[in-house]
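Long-time lurker, first post. I've been practising inverse folding by hand and with some scripts of my own, and I keep getting stuck on stretches where the C-alpha cells seem ambiguous. Below is the full C-alpha cell string for one chain I'm working on. Before anyone asks, I'm not after the true native sequence, just a reasonable design that respects the backbone. If someone could post their per-position residues I'd love to compare against what I wrote down in my notebook.
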C-alpha cells in the first residue's frame, strides 16, 4: 500500500463552518486522505457534518478521497466512512476495529516509543506520532517529541507512520527525511492564503522526499 503523503485535518474549530468547502478544495488538488476533527461539537453535529463530508468526497476529483472520523468509530461505521482515528484515551484499536470492520482503516495516535511498539502489535492500519513540533490546535498537547524521536519511531514499526503536531511547509522536507510516510496538517493548510497551493506544495515535497529515498 502506498500511503497518502499528506493527511489534511478538517478541524472544525479552525474552519468555523467551512468544512465542506475546505474538504472539496483539498480533494480537488489531489489530497487523498482527510480527517474530520470536531473536539467541541455534539455527537449529532459530528454525525451530520461527517455525513455531508462523506457525500461530498464521494464526488471528489481526480479520485475519491478517504475520510477518517476522529474519535468516533460508531459514526464512522454508520456512515461507511473511510476510517476512524483513535487516541490513547479513546477506544483501543481492536475494539474500534470490531465496530468499523476489516475494510475500514483504523489509525491510532502515539506519543512515546513504547506506545508505537504497542500500536505496531495491533491491527491498526497506520500509526500517528507526535506532536513532532509545538502545536496550538489542541487544548492540552502532549510533550513535543522532535525529529530524532520520530526517526526512532520509524525503526519501531513497518506500518505507515504519520507525523503530527506543528507541521508546516517549511518543516515538511526534514519531517519526511526523518521517516514520516505522511504529514498530518491542520493550521498550515487552513490558514494559508491559498490552501490548494499550499497542499500542492506539500505534495511536491513528498514527491521529492520519495525520490531521495529511492536514490539512497
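-- Answer (accepted) --
I ran through it position by position. Result:
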Amino acid at each position: 500500500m502506498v500511503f497518502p503523503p499528506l493527511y489534511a485535518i478538517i478541524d472544525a474549530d479552525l474552519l468555523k463552518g467551512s468544512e465542506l468547502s475546505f474538504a472539496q478544495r483539498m480533494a480537488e488538488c489531489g489530497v487523498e486522505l482527510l480527517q474530520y476533527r470536531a473536539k467541541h461539537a455534539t455527537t449529532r453535529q459530528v454525525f451530520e457534518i461527517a455525513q455531508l463530508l462523506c457525500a461530498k468526497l464521494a464526488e471528489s476529483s481526480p479520485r475519491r478521497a478517504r475520510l477518517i472520523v476522529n474519535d468516533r468509530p460508531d459514526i464512522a461505521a454508520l456512515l461507511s466512512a473511510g476510517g476512524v482515528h483513535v487516541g490513547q484515551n479513546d477506544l483501543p484499536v481492536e475494539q474500534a476495529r470490531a465496530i468499523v470492520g476489516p475494510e475500514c482503516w483504523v489509525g491510532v495516535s502515539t506519543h512515546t516509543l513504547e506506545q508505537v511498539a504497542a500500536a505496531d502489535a495491533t491491527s491498526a492500519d497506520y500509526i500517528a506520532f507526535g506532536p513532532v513540533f509545538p502545536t496550538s490546535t489542541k487544548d492540552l498537547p502532549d510533550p513535543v517529541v522532535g525529529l530524532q524521536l520520530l526517526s526512532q519511531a520509524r525503526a519501531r514499526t513497518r506500518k505507515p507512520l504519520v507525523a503530527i503536531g506543528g507541521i508546516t511547509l517549511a518543516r515538511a522536507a526534514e519531517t519526511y527525511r526523518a521517516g514520516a510516510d505522511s504529514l498530518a496538517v491542520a493550521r498550515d493548510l487552513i490558514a494559508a492564503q491559498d490552501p490548494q497551493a499550499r497542499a500542492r506544495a506539500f505534495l511536491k515535497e513528498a514527491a521529492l522526499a520519495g525520490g531521495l529515498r529511492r536514490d539512497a
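A couple of notes from the structure itself: The chain has ten helices and eight strands. The CA atoms of residues 58 and 143 lie 37 Å apart. Happy to go over any region you disagree with.
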